[in-house]
Amino acid sequence: MLIEFGKVFVFLSVAVVFVIIAIIAARFIRPARPTHEKMLTYECGENPIGTPWVKFNIRFYVVALIFLIFDVEVVLLIPWALVYKGFGIGGFLVGAIFLFMLGLGMAYEWRKGDLEWVKPKVILPTLRKEPVEIKEDVAA
Q: Are 77 and 94 in contact (CB under 8 A)?
């Protein structure tokens, strides 16, 4: 009889052996026709030409972070949707408040313009400078 750590060891061993067998089988089955273009580094649809120190637009990161925030929050709704009946009206209200706050956050991001790929240019107000006439009242 195996102890608990022995079961984990057997499971991990079987997993490693399965992965090694799959990699070896794939090496024998797949066609190998390397060309110059196939051997080039490929990333995100961009050809690797020029310096790697290219400045990316910050919008890539902002959109990715907003997606992650809302995606994780929506994923949290799945377990709630499966068990909220067991919590009664209190569980429903907690989920409704969560959805309301999620909607407020989405509306805020939308209003702020962070969901638009091309952000509108901010035009700062300027003051007109008009010459000021100073009248001197000379009392003689």
A: no
Fold exhibited by the domain 18-112: Methane Monooxygenase Hydroxylase; Chain G, domain 1 (1.20.58)
Q: Cα dist. 74→22, 65, 70, 99 in Å?
A: 35, 14, 6, 9
pTM summary value? 0.44
What are the residue boundaries of the structural domains of the chain, listed by start? Answer: 18-112
Rg value, the chain, Cα:
31
Residue for token digits 């700062």?
124
Average pLDDT per 10 consecutive residues for the chain, totaling 140 residues: 83 97 94 82 68 74 82 82 83 87 87 74 75 64
